[in-house]
Design goal:
Blueprint: H1 2-13, H2 24-54, H3 58-96, H4 98-105, H5 107-113, H6 121-135, H7 139-153, H8 164-174, H9 182-190, H10 200-227
Helix pairs in contact: 3-7, 4-6, 6-7, 7-8, 8-10
């Protein structure tokens, strides 16, 4: 799970090759980051081996390694299928003009939180689609749309540096307002819940509070960095 999370974060942060030359400091920082992560993974593996051998749990460690590898492959394949599906749906929405309609509908909100969308219509379309997917509780659909929006926003930032707007998008995508938590309701229904949507009032209040707190913190930190 940690490796999968690292891969997803790396995919979002290192989105695409910049259109202008990359500075030497950026290359050095990327090299340091890769080296640190290598030390972390190596240290985790070595500590696991040492503790397992020292406590006489070598057999259980071997079984856990095989089970974890199998679970990782299963998780990757299942999530890859969902992400491929919703990436295709996002492209269909774009070709059909639905994202453009959503962008016009949500332009007062997106223009206030993401000023760069006033200069990039495609970024506004992907952000609007991401917000709508989160409103319907479709987390797997929101992820590829959020990545596409982050790609567009990265054009307005320095290479290898996440802009304030990119950070706000990640905050909104993580602590999203959900009108219909379909994924959570599906899980509750599969576990035998008689009324999977009885959590709606609690979901509305908590998601609204989380988004408000996240955006306020993002704007506050942006102001601190600007004044520093």
């Amino acid at each position: 799970m940690l490796a999968f999370l690292y891969a997803e974060v790396s995919m979002i942060c290192a989105i695409e090759e910049p259109a202008y030359p990359v500075s030497l400091s950026h290359i050095l920082l990327q090299g340091v980051w890769d080296m640190v992560m290598s030390y972390i993974w190596s240290g985790m593996v070595l500590l696991s081996l040492l503790f397992a051998l020292g406590s006489g749990q070598g057999a259980r460690l071997t079984a856990a390694i095989l089970e974890g590898a199998q679970g990782g492959v299963t998780l990757t394949i299942s999530m890859a299928g969902a992400i491929c599906l919703w990436s295709g749906v996002g492209q269909v929405m774009k070709q059909a003009g639905l994202t453009r309609y959503l962008a016009k509908l949500l332009s007062p909100v997106t223009g206030l939180i993401f000023p760069s969308t006033r200069k990039d219509g495609e970024a506004k379309e992907w952000i609007s689609a991401n917000i709508c997917a989160n409103l319907l509780g479709l987390g797997n659909a929101a992820t590829p749309m959020g990545i596409a929006a982050t790609k567009r926003l990265s054009r307005f930032s320095s290479p290898g540096v996440a802009s304030h707007e990119m950070c706000r998008l990640i905050v909104m995508n993580t602590a999203s307002i959900q009108l219909l938590p379909t994924n959570v309701a599906a899980v509750r229904g599969s576990l035998g819940c008689c009324n999977p949507f009885d959590i709606l009032p609690a979901v509305w209040v908590t998601s609204l509070c989380s988004v408000a707190a996240g955006l306020l913190a993002a704007f506050w930190f942006e102001r601190i960095v600007r004044d520093a």
